[in-house]
Give the backbone structure.
Amino acid sequence: MFHVSESLIALLLAYCYAAAGDLLMGRRAGSLGAWNQSFVVGLSVVTALLFPFSILLPGHALLAIAVLLIAAGSFRLYGSLKGHMAKPWFTFRTPVERKDLWALVMFGIVGILAIQFVVQNTLRACASDGYLIWATKAFVLYRRGAMTTDLLVPGVYEYVSPYPMMVPLYEALLSLLRGAFVFEGTKPVFAFFFVSMLISTFRAARGLASRRVALGAAALLASIPALTTHTNVEGYADMPQACLVAAVVAAFFEEGSPGRPVSFREPLPWLCIGLPLVKSEGITLLTILCIAIGMLWIAGGLAAFLRKCRLYWRPIAIVACGGILRLWTVYWVGGHDPVFGSLRSAATWSRAYGRLLEVPQLCLDRLIDFNECGLLWPAFLLAIPIVLIAGQRREKAAVLVAGSALVSDTSIFYFTNWDVFQHISAAYNRLLSQLAPLVVVVLVIAYVRLRGAPEQTRQPPERQARTASPRWRRKRLVAYVVAAFGCILVALWFSHRRQSSGHSQASHAAILGDFDKNGEPDLVWQNDATRAATVNYYSHDKNPAVQGWAWLDRAGAPGLRVVAAADFDGNGVPDLVWQNDVTRKVTVHYYGGERGSVEQGWKFLDQTGNPGWTVVAAADFDRNGVPDLVWQNETTRQVTVHYYGGPQGAVPQGWAWLDRVGAPGWRVVAAADFDGNGVPDLVWQNETTRQVTVHYYGGERGAIQQGWKWLDEAGEPGWKVAGANDFDGNGVPDLVYVHGSTRQVVVHFYGGPRGAWWQGWTWLNGNAQPGWTPIVPR
Amino acid sequence: MAPVPGCAGRLRDSATRMKKDSTQRPNWRPFLAHLCAIVVLGAGLYAAAVRAKLDHAFIYSDAVRSVYPAGHLRQVEIFKSTVPKGSVFYIMDQPEFWQAGLWRRSLYPDNPVIQVYDPTLVHTSNMENLRDKLLISYALCAGNPPPDPGFEWKIELPSFPGSVPIVLGKLKR
């Protein structure tokens, strides 16, 4: 289960990569930090070689690279055995001093977070892009032995063909040494990227601050959910990209100011060429970095700039060659990414113009999403003025790079062919997570500058002067801090405005599904065998808790199932809708009395029945104040709505299609108004992947589909959506999930634009309740 | 040049004061720095804890360990025992990427899968040319019900929870 042999092979490869990096830099890494740097240098250089090898040795490039790597590893091992028998091969200095409790705590936190990543990374199979793009590219590379212009169908271009090869190469090499390709067996490589990212960030921060602060920086980085869970444990390449960013940042701050021409053995240029070899956006990061370094040099005057160019001509040549090689690869593969509109088309630019306001608004919303990044990005906004006022030139350059990358990452959304909301909610947090190591280091700089005390850094004395704090100018500081706070407030205001748009009327106007009328929705349970029904009352609280229960139907009715609960008679208490398992006839049982648990009579809603069709939800589509029944065909998965009205809401008023085509493998699990237009929307869940979408409705009698969005793109294996209701009182329905076997129940809160952004979750029933099924009343 | 008498002391005082100003740290700065650091790190750890609680409830107990469901692997076995090496069509009644993606990777490289998103496209000249070029004789048809492009014979592959109904057949010439 833990892929032990694959992990060992990945470790062996990591050693070989580091050996290759060592050989290139003409050194022998003796510490973990240096070894880590050599590892990333090796990754960059070896990946850069894949393309020329594929041209020169079609079908054998992978094997050639494997041979080279093993040769490098063997050479390094031989050197260690021969020349250093008397000395230890490797020294591991613990980053914690014995008496430094805070450093020990930070180190412990980093360790725990790293372990959680490794465990999750092992447990989860590749998903979505991790499977369909990165592991697939590795699979094809393993099979074909070299880069190809096509992918799964020989001769047919696919848009992922030009995507960079660093992650697929590592995975393919692992499979080559393993002797077979297994998709799940490629996952151990990500643990090495993760640990490397933490070490690089520690190293970068350690050059600027004390040990405990550097460990705190690593802990902060390891705690960011957008970087350490979600897609990063599903085989995506964003975290490896962050690993490269971290290594570049560490090398950037270690770089000296030489008085003679810089050797080609310096690590920074080699690390830079690795940036565009992980993900396509790496080329943007590399460009921004080059511009920032150019600006840094030119700030000292033209003469100083030219002198720097003379000193650094070798690194400049290496980076230029790396960039050209990457562009050549893209040109060689050819084609066009269908995700984005052509920049030659006027329509693309016109569409981009129309998105001028929408894209920044949506991106700001993501930027301050606490669930994904905590306070990382708001803190970064506050750190900008501090570093710009009190930082050294190089530190200011780092802030400029981070800020520019932050803005440039939004640019792709102006040109996307996808729904812009869809694309931003799926991708922007991932793009941001790639910059996280740099942002964490900027926060460390801001901390050091704000604190003002000399830090016990690891830098030699001549470099310590560079980190000495210059004088503060308080008036400017106040202006900058006020401006930064202003930015955050504007972002919060945008976020609040968007979250509340469309929901102001719905919010708090009517609490649906509330039996005891305490302002909090309740939950109906039905026994699978006896079909007895109960209601669990919930407290009106941020985290609703069960506050008692009552029978709704103690005797039960075998052969009949509660399929929905909604208020048909208008007394404010939900009524139970029952359907016969065989005849599919439908009745409504009215409730009222003490805490809404006393039956008040019943009526037929559908006396003829519709065999093959099931009632999946009850909600008011035609806005006449009476819930309507949503039916779904069990085979074709088509969906209809049957309207109701009249006395006690039991008189049929016609019907309409909600989905005439149907979606095989998908089931309607709830109907509730997510976009705040007053018409319920349909929530669908995939029966295999457990992904969840919402399909919006409006128009005539609420039966016209008006787009769709993901509610849970990853899916929660083992969990089914039981229904939707507004448990947190923000006017947006929340999804209630039930576990397939234990029947534990959780609620996932939603908000944001069109009610489709996840806001957190809590338990509704943490105890196992096997044999009972929850129904969410409306 | 010697300093002007009477001014030297004032200059020296001024210089001392400036030096003192520039080196003296206001007390609020270390406090503010520590406070900010604690808030940011604390918020990060809190967000991580919330996420870990969620992961504990979902991922650790029910993570999908393999991309391929057992039912799908059974279908692939039947396919491989029936169809020789060569390209095949995967015809959908409507675009559906995940199952199609599973099939493309399961059958690679022996049977490259050509996806057809609309059953009506099968008999267009482009597809006919492709069929002749790649000698395509077999098709997988997925949908509810699976589309029928015209088979010599066909078999229904066993379904599994969450699968799209799928048939395998040999195409008529």
In short: Chain B has five helices and five strands. Chain B touches chain A through 58 residues (CB under 8 Å).
